[in-house]
Amino acid sequence: MRKPRRLSNEQLAPWVWEVPRVGTSAGDRWPDADPETLHALSSDACPLPSVREAVRAVPEPIDWAKLFGNPNPVEIEVGTGKGLFLLHSATARPDTNFFGIEIVRKYQLYAATRYAIRNMPNVKTACADAKVVLRDFVPPGGVAAVHVYFPDPWWKKRHRKRRVFTPEFAADAARAIAPGGRLLIASDVEEYFGLMTAIVRAMPAFGERPDEAGRAAPQTDTGYATNFERKARAAGTPVWRAVYERTTGPVTVVPDPAGE
Asked: Which listed site, 45, 181, 182, 220, has its alpha carbon 20 to 30 Å from 241?
């Protein structure tokens, strides 16, 4: 990975949202973040708090207007990698705010540096477990869209618990997306794409919009919107996409089609 220009933490701060932590008694804990998952991913994974640190007992939802300094709609990308999709999107749509969640610290900092160098006001990044952020910190109906592109399939059976897109994750995404909003997914792994679509299609909270599938990680005038798609296309691997509209249907946790 080519190293971007190095910026200090202070210079990057306007583009970084940190998971709130407070000093508490040793009995408190980090809420359901998976230490094994975090540290299996990378030695540069987001640092876990010490035994005397934990998020607030009742997590405080993110105030988007305060975070971005405006009331514009917010879209979340889960797994930003090096931040190419958000770079394209935030540049093309300055009237929309984008919040990128990445579990690997070095990639989150790489992406944040890209936005800081360009002084992009409508992008924020977080080094965190997206499942925790969606569940505990995104207010209900608080975002216009959630993007999930090329999540890691975790091929080995013993690693499948690290899968991002689960029925619980889809339910948390549904709670986060306002009615009329969108869930956009793409993958170069047909089996995983089938798993994701099976979960979402079983949920009354979503309705498929096949006419909009091209909006999921679309190709741009200057190239592919994500680094993963660029690699997939170079290897001749097909990419599957889908877009779902958030309905007014109830949020449900459906059975896992993977049988887990």
From this structure: 45
- How many whole angstroms separate alpha carbon 145 and alpha carbon 159? 28
Tell me the catalytic residues. 152
Checking if the pLDDT of 121 tops 50, the result is yes
Q: Cβ distance 109 to 12 under 8 Å? A: yes
Name the pLDDT band for 24 (thresholds 50, 70, 90). Answer: very low
pLDDT band at 177 (very low <50, low <70, confident <90, very high): very high
Q: How many residues does the chain have?
A: 260
Is 93 inside any structural domain? yes
Residue 21: give the domain boundaries: 9-246
User: Are 73 and 144 contacting, i.e. CB atoms less than 8 angstroms apart?
Assistant: yes
Better-scored residue on pLDDT, 33 or 73: 73
> Which pLDDT tens digit goes with each residue over 195-242?
999 999 999 999 999 999 988 877 766 555 666 666 666 666 788 999
* 191 phi, psi to nearest 5 deg: -60, -45
Domain harbouring 202, CATH code: 3.40.50.150
Does residue 253 fall inside a structural domain?
no
Domain count for the chain, please give it.
1
DSSP string, 170-187: HHHHHHHEEEEEEEEEEE
Residue 260 lies in a domain: no
Q: Which residues contact 35 (CB under 8 A, 6 or more apart)?
A: 48
Structure tokens at 94: 């300055």
Would strands 223-224 and 240-246 be described as parallel, antiparallel, or unpaired? unpaired
